[in-house]
Description:
Blueprint: E1 3-9, E2 12-18, H1 26-34, H2 39-51, H3 57-69, E3 71-78
Antiparallel strand pairs: 1-2, 1-3
Helix pairs in contact: 2-3
Amino acid sequence: MALKISYSYKGQPRLIQYANDKYHDIYEAIAAEEGVDLRAYLAMERQLAALSKKVGAVKDFRDNKFLEFGFNDIKVIKE
Length: 79
């Protein structure tokens, strides 16, 4: 099944192809497409996942951080 990711980066709408074998998740794929370095983000995400007892803490962190990076309206389109 072919997947596409629709998103906006700094106010510009974008559409890219996505394959599970190349990236861990859609967020890594869109960051790679736009040239955003995720090393510090991924380290913090791992720490948060290991230490947080709040359900959804990692998702909240990811959503807020990607808004800071300039991404919004991230959607997966199945064909």
